[in-house]
Write a structure and sequence with these properties.
CATH topology of the largest domain: Rossmann fold
Largest sheet: 6 strands, mixed
CATH superfamily of the largest domain: P-loop containing nucleotide triphosphate hydrolases
Number of domains: 3
Number of helices: 8
Radius of gyration: 23 Å
Strand order of the largest sheet: 2-3-1-4-5-6
Structural class: alpha+beta
CATH architecture of the largest domain: 3-Layer(aba) Sandwich
Amino acid sequence: MAKEKTHINLVFIGHVDHGKSTTVGRLLFDSGNIDEQTLRNLKIKAKELGKSGFEFAFVMDNLKEERERGLTIDLAHKKFETDKYYFTIIDAPGHKDFIKNMITGASQADAAVLVVAANDGVMAQTKEHVFLARTLGVGQLIVAVNKMDMKKYDESVFNKIKTEVSTLLKTVGYNPDEIQFVPLASLPGDNVFKKSDNLSWWKGGTLLEEIDNLKEPEKPTQLPLRLPIQDVYNITGIGVVPVGRVETGVMKVGQKVTAMPGREGKGVPGEVKSIEMHHEQMKQAVPGDNVGFNVRGFGKNDITRGDVVGPADKAPTVATEFTAQIVVLNHPSVITAGYTPVFHIHTTQVACQIIAIEKKLNPATGEVLKENPDFIKNGDAAIVKIKPVQPLVIEKQKDIPQLSRFAVRDSGATVAAGMCINLTKK
């Protein structure tokens, strides 16, 4: 079979109404990933709902409520191929109510396209999304300056926004020199998939070309193996088959492994007998591979979703408490010590108590604003100390960043996101 193209998770972020969904819709339509007929139906639908010009956005916003409100509520995933890569495009909500979904999107993204409207420039959520992308470890960024048609395709407007966004990127630690800026107008279709005479001054690539210029995400094979278990199946004739995605390292047939914390919290030792992906036997699995595997020593009741498999000699870290840097996104009031929400870390969900708020930080720069504050609220970044109610696997950001990130949820909403910076080993 042909060599599989490298897979990249690409998230579209930016302020509400700056044209993220329309940009994605235009890209999918011009590249032939959706057909005329579908688009015609969406056009009619948009008109009926009094939302003419939203037909491209509707490609991604397929929930009824989203169409009526003209907003992206949940994450939409779409497959998209270029000559070089195979993309999963994640269209993240820019609307502040829906920023919770942005977290789940960005935390699995390899790269992001930040959409900034030429007629608005940098807005509140442009800042928030840029900071989140940084905190959640999105390494590569493309800035799409959209709605150039509303500014008569004026080059000086593009340059002004480029300067404005560059300043913002610097404050959170991105290097603007490594970031590609692209002017476009998604609704009329200028410079998204094809070049446009309206932007004749632009010597750079189209958005499509810039997406294809992204660097292959590094596969962290040099780190110790970490494979969080998503499900455990019991298959007749084979036995126990855990399923999950390799986050770091390499899993090999014959390797001695340990699943942590396991039912007793002491870990479950075993030896990898077989690995399978897409119904094909494999000798090894690398980061990004979704695999089913069988381990001599893993019994049906020993392991469960949320356990993490690692090498016997570098077993996954179980923490009794940990220190994290978090951003509060969406909490109805204030967060104080004693608050016990649910933490979503890799494939596990564990209630954890915030036992101390050590520092309040400036969310854009990370500088300390206050030591030991009484509370933190929406928009604040902070360093907090956390105690899980039961043992859980988490790693320090500087050791294995892929297993350091988490989202904090409470009564159906994501209230915060962050990463582990220190921990006390069990």
